């Protein structure tokens, strides 16, 4: 006979089992698995479905006295970092095995060959974007589903029929105003790790392509001199990644890309407000019908500090706030985001701040329009004055050019002496009257 206590516990157990089943795929994600693998043992790494291995550490040698090394024999601490060699055999896959001793690890000769060595390794499983053959047959691109961050593995597209990375790009779509960081985990490098903070100059072994809707040309996805490094920071809010396009051989295209969305999205404001983005992390809220403004900043969790503003005016408008925009899933070749004014409705737009006289139902002329009209009027006035001055100067110049011709004609008609002509011309230039010199000449002629 079932007791009342058992009847009461049964629903609780049922709920626990259901939740455990639902959360099972995420239980091992990002958890660290580590251990020592002695002589004749096998290192085996395995992750759940839709997850891949990322090695955190792989050291081969005689590191310390313990389960694998019972006596130091005077040779303790000899070791070699083999994580990059192990990467090519494990990282980016779902399952891998390495038997100890390993011939490739032994080729580094970390210790005397007469001594037994062991492997100290750790790894974690990370959940990556998954895709199916049927989806790839119906679509020409692959939208990521984990936002604001997640992982893309090249092995997903290369191992799924009809989902080749060269024909089906991954699409990461953030909201307008946000950006995307890409970090590359390169598991195909056949060279030792670099410990410097800046990568060495190496030729680009192209793994794929990156397309940014804020940039006008594709960016090559290249290998680097470091195993993990910052790959790209987007200009726009939508990025496409062709995971296995490029010149590198197919077997060298095994990598994982971590993507993360950062920054505050352009806010959708009420009809009687506008938002001006002054920088990547700051902006100003303003009212259309009053002079009220408020400075708002983007916090580390990608939220605006100020979201409301009192826009009440004599017409009875109430205070308003702003909302976060909806996620844009389609890829558009938009210009790079820049500082500007966003007026909503109808759509988010940059670089446009309609004057109040252009808004429906509002006949008030804004201060910007008034200043523009005054500047145009002043420019027209200056141009008119300049034109009048030029006309007056040209008239005087022409008058001076033709004045000597008129004097010579008058001298010929009246048979004036040369000295008299000069005196008349001088008098005309200085502005004196010609009446008195002419009268004196006539009297002189009559007396002779």
Q: Can you walk through the features of this model?
A:
- There is one protein chain.
- By secondary structure, this protein is an alpha+beta fold.
- It is built from 8 helices and 22 strands.
- The strands form 6 sheets. Strands 7-9-14-11-12 form a 5-stranded mixed beta sheet, with no helix packed on it.
- A hairpin with a 6-residue loop joins β11 (206-212) and β12.
- It starts with a helix and ends with a helix.
Characteristics of this structure?
disordered N terminus; 8 helices; five-stranded mixed β-sheet; about 450 residues; about 25% strand; alpha+beta
Give a quick summary of the entry.
The protein has 448 residues and is of the alpha+beta class. It contains eight helices and 22 strands. The radius of gyration is 42 Å and the shape is elongated.
Which range does the strand content fall in?
25-35%
Tally of strands: 22
Question: What's the overall geometry?
Answer: elongated
State the end-to-end CA separation. 168 Å
Provide the spatial order of strands within the biggest beta sheet: 7-9-14-11-12
Q: What portion of residues is helical? A: 25-40%
Largest sheet: 5 strands, mixed
The radius of gyration over CA amounts to 42 Å
Structural class, from helix and strand content? Answer: alpha+beta
Task: Summarize the helices and strands and which ones pair or pack.
Layout: H1 4-27, E1 32-37, E2 42-46, E3 51-61, E4 79-81, H2 83-87, E5 95-99, H3 103-106, E6 118-127, H4 133-138, E7 142-143, E8 149-153, H5 154-159, E9 170-173, E10 179-186, E11 206-212, E12 219-222, E13 228-233, E14 238-242, E15 255-262, E16 268-269, E17 273-279, E18 282-287, E19 293-297, E20 308-309, E21 320-323, E22 340-342, H6 367-414, H7 418-430, H8 435-447
Parallel strand pairs: 7-9
Antiparallel strand pairs: 1-6, 2-5, 3-4, 3-6, 8-15, 9-14, 10-13, 10-15, 11-12, 11-14, 16-21, 17-18, 17-22, 18-19, 20-21
């Amino acid at each position: 006979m079932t007791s009342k206590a058992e009847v009461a516990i049964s629903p609780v157990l049922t709920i626990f089992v259901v939740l455990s089943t639902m959360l099972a795929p995420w239980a091992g994600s990002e958890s660290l698995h580590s251990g020592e693998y002695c002589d004749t043992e096998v290192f085996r790494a395995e992750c759940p479905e839709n997850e891949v291995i990322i090695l955190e550490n792989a050291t081969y040698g005689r590191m310390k006295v313990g389960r694998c090394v019972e006596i130091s024999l005077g040779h303790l601490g000899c070791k070699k970092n083999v994580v990059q060699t192990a990467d090519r055999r494990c990282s980016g896959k779902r399952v891998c095995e390495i038997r100890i001793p390993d011939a490739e690890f032994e080729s580094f000769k970390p210790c005397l060959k007469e001594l037994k060595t062991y492997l100290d390794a750790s790894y974690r499983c990370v959940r990556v974007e998954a895709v199916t053959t049927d989806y790839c047959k119906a679509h020409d691109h692959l939208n990521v589903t984990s936002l604001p961050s997640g992982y893309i593995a090249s092995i997903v597209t290369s191992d799924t029929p009809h989902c080749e990375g060269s024909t089906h790009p991954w699409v990461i779509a953030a909201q307008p105003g946000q950006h995307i960081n890409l970090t590359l985990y390169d598991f195909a490098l056949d060279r030792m790790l670099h410990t410097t903070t800046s990568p060495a100059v190496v030729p680009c072994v192209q793994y794929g392509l990156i397309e940014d809707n804020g940039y006008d040309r594709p960016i090559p996805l290249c290998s680097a001199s470091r195993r993990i490094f910052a790959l790209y920071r987007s200009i726009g809010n939508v990025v496409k990644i062709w995971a296995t396009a490029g010149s590198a051989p197919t077997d060298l295209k095994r990598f994982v890309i971590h993507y993360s969305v950062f920054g505050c999205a352009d806010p959708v404001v009420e009809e009687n407000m506008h938002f001006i983005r002054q920088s990547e992390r700051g902006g100003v809220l303003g009212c259309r019908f009053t002079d009220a403004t408020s400075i708002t900043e983007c916090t580390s969790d990608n939220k605006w500090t100020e979201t409301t503003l009192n826009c009440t005016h004599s017409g009875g408008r109430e205070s308003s706030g702003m909302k976060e925009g909806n996620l844009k899933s389609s890829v558009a070749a938009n210009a790079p985001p820049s500082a500007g004014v966003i007026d909503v409705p109808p759509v988010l737009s940059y670089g446009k701040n309609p004057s109040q006289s252009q808004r429906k139902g509002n006949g008030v002329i804004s201060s910007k329009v008034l200043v523009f009209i005054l500047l145009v009027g002043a420019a027209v006035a200056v141009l008119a004055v300049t034109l009048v001055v030029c006309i007056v100067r040209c008239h005087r110049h022409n008058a001076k050019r033709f004045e000597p011709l008129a004097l010579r004609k008058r001298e010929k008609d009246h048979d004036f002496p040369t000295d008299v002509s000069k005196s008349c011309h001088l008098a005309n230039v200085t502005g004196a009257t010609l009446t008195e010199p002419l009268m004196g000449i006539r009297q002189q002629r009559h007396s002779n």
